Amino acid sequence: MFGMGFTEILFIAVIAILFMGPDKLPGAMVEIAKFFRTVKKTVGDVKDSLEQEMNVSEIKQEALAYKKELLDAGESLNKVTDIKGTIASGLSDLNDDILGDDDMEDETPKAASKPEKVTFEKKPKKAKKPKKEENIDV
Questions:
Q1: Distances (CA, A) of 84 to 6, 46, 79
Q2: pLDDT of 28-78, one tens digit each?
Q3: Residue 60 and residue 67: Cα distance in Å, rounded?
Q4: Distance between CA 69 and CA 58 in Å, rounded?
Q5: Among 43, 47, 45, which residue's Cα sits nearest to residue 35?
Q6: How confident is the model at residue 44, as a pLDDT?
Q7: DSSP-H helix ranges across the chain
Q8: What is the rounded CA–CA span in Å between residue 66 and residue 50?
Q9: Nearest alpha-carbon partner for 91 in 80, 81, 99
C-alpha cells in the first residue's frame, strides 16, 4: 500500500499511538480512512470525466466526418436526380424553336395550317376570272 511495507506501517502506527494516545487514535483512523476514500473517489471521477471528454471529442470528430460524407452524398444525389436541370440543359436550344412554332400556329389562318404535300411538280395555273363590267348608263 503506497509503496510501504508492513514494518513501515507498523512503525507509523506506534508513533501515532504515542502522539495521539489510545483514546483519540480510533477516531483519527476513521477520519484518515474517509479522507483516503474521498480522494480515491475524486480521482476516479476525474479519470472518468477525462475519458468521457476524450471519447466525446472522438465521437464529435466521427460525427463531423459522417456529416461531411452525407452532405457530399446528398449533393451528388441532387446532381443525379436533377431532371429539370439535365432536360433544360439538353433542350435549351429547342425551347426557342418550340415557343416560336406555337406563336406561328396561333397567327396563321386555319386553312393555311393544314400540312401541304411537297412535290417538285409544277402546279397548274388557275384560270383568271373575268372582271365584271359595270353597266353605266350614260
A1: 85, 57, 10
A2: 888 888 998 999 999 999 998 888 888 787 888 888 999 999 999 888 888
A3: 10
A4: 17
A5: 43
A6: 93
A7: 6-81, 83-107
A8: 24
A9: 99
User: Which pTM value belongs to this model?
Assistant: 0.35
Q: In angstroms, rounded to a whole number, what is the distance separating the alpha carbons of residues 78 and 87?
A: 14
Take residue 103 and report the three cell numbers written for it.
Answer: 406563336
CB 20 within 8 A of CB 28: yes
How far apart, in whole angstroms, are the C-alpha atoms of residue 20 and residue 25? 6
Residue 2 cell numbers, joined: 503506497
pLDDT score recorded for residue 135 = 59
Distance between CA atoms of residues 43 and 36, nearest Å: 10
| Chain segment 97-131, per-residue pLDDT in tens | 555 555 455 555 555 556 677 777 777 777 666 65
